[in-house]
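Recall that a protein's primary structure is simply its ordered list of amino acids. Everything else, from secondary elements to tertiary packing, is in principle encoded there. The following example makes that idea concrete.
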Amino acid sequence: MALSDDIRVDAEDHHGSVSEHDLAQTLQQIARGEKTAEALESNLTSLEKKIDDLLASFEETERKMLQEQGQGQGQGQGQEAEEAKGKQAGTGEGKDKGKP
């Protein structure tokens, strides 16, 4: 029985050593994983800011374009109205000038 007890003790010691070694490796891997996660998070935060800046720029450009189109349409309508008045006035004057 002493032999079997020795085998059990050796097995427990070996198993305990492997567990401690595995635990140490696991903790090292976790530490590396945390560093990698922090670096990725930092990069993602930077990318998110750049995307937000681009989106804001596109929205500002679109707003300006729509505003310019709105002003252009307003001016175009004003010009059309003035041209229509000028044609009517010109036609009226032409009729009067052409007749004795």
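The radius of gyration is 42 Å. The CA atoms of residues 47 and 53 lie 10 Å apart.
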